[in-house]
Amino acid sequence: MNTVTEYLGRNARQYGIVGALLLIVLLFQWMTGGRLLLPDNIISLIQQNAYVMILAIGMVMVIVAGHIDLSVGSLVAFIGGAAAIMMADWGWGWPAAILVSLVLGLLIGAWQGFWVAYLGIPAFIVTLAGMLIFRGLAIVIVGETKAGLPQEFIAIAGGELPSVLGFAGALDALTLLIGVLGMAGFVFSQWRARRGLIKHDLAVEPMGIFLAKNVVVVVLIGILTYWIALRATPIVLLVVGGLVLLFTFVLSRTVFGRHIYAVGGNRHAAELSGVRTRLTDFMIFVNMGLLSAVAAIVTTSRAGAGVAAAGQLYELDAIAACFIGGCAVRGGVGRISGAMIGALIMGVLNMGLSILAVDAAWQQTIKGLVLLLAVALDIVSKRRGAYA
């Protein structure tokens, strides 16, 4: 086989996920008569699925380390309800409520991480207990819906950046600038990563694939920028984008990130190599608690109120996004970029099926089948690799 063929064979799953997303988008664009990619629907897709993307960022780290977290949906309800009470009942300003909510998420994450890392209780059990505990507490503290939240807080999930740079024809100039910066940043990061691999005599993708990947991504960012610029940039898109960039850096460029992969790949070998596996496990759940708090803020902002029933099945959406995006069932493998693609696949399925007026029960059925297929493909590909 030539180099290109070998590379595509090794990375078939990664490129297959991207291809699946594009195929699903084109299919629903055709089935909905072009309504899927209307600017309003693009904005709604981002705003409605921001919570999945935020939770999936943390869930990738949890799954890569060989754990699972079933409590995040309940944490969203509990922390979001607490934030609403701070603002609606106690009269706190929204910045103070957000700050305390983030601290609360850190404390809950530390509490769950302690049971997993230092007492050795499986994460499945600890977070299952957390799911029950914090759902019950959400019902207790919220009771009925807590509304009357500040407009500045509601704008976090539902608002858009003001058009401070004016318009280029019918397009928002600020959105165009953000899109251009995004394209330049992606190309620069890819070029820098490639140079780093070459410098250390590590394998790199063939130049043809490297250039084609960059061209395709730049074109897709340009198309997305154009659609969004017909309206304006959602504030929550900047929140999600910032978190993706930050935690991609953490996973790929920091000691903590390398330790997560080491623990998930082979815990015993990681311990022999000097990795503090307990501290790594602890910090993973602290981080998951923090991101659950961010998702709670976004969810409560979008709803405009604290609701005890918020966050239902959010943990399953986040876990599904990770597995669809290429995370391995046994840990050690996974990328935040893949989880974001998985979240978009789930979001496009939701929106496309909703536009087609498909019953909610059938929507759940279809998403379950997609998840099952994704995990089955992962297992089959690993078995073929083992016998190759």
UniProtKB/TrEMBL annotation:
**Species annotation:** Myceligenerans crystallogenes
* Bilayer disposition of the protein: Multi-pass membrane protein
Q: What NCBIfam families does the record point to? A: GguB (NF040906)
Give the highest taxon in the source lineage.
Bacteria
Please explain the role this protein plays, according to its UniProt record.
Part of the binding-protein-dependent transport system for D-xylose. Probably responsible for the translocation of the substrate across the membrane.
Q: Which InterPro entries match?
A: ABC_transp_permease
Predominantly, its location class is membrane
Localization of this protein:
Cell membrane
Protein name per Swiss-Prot or TrEMBL: Xylose transport system permease protein XylH
User: Is Membrane one of the keywords UniProt gives this record?
Assistant: yes
Gene that this sequence comes from: gguB_2
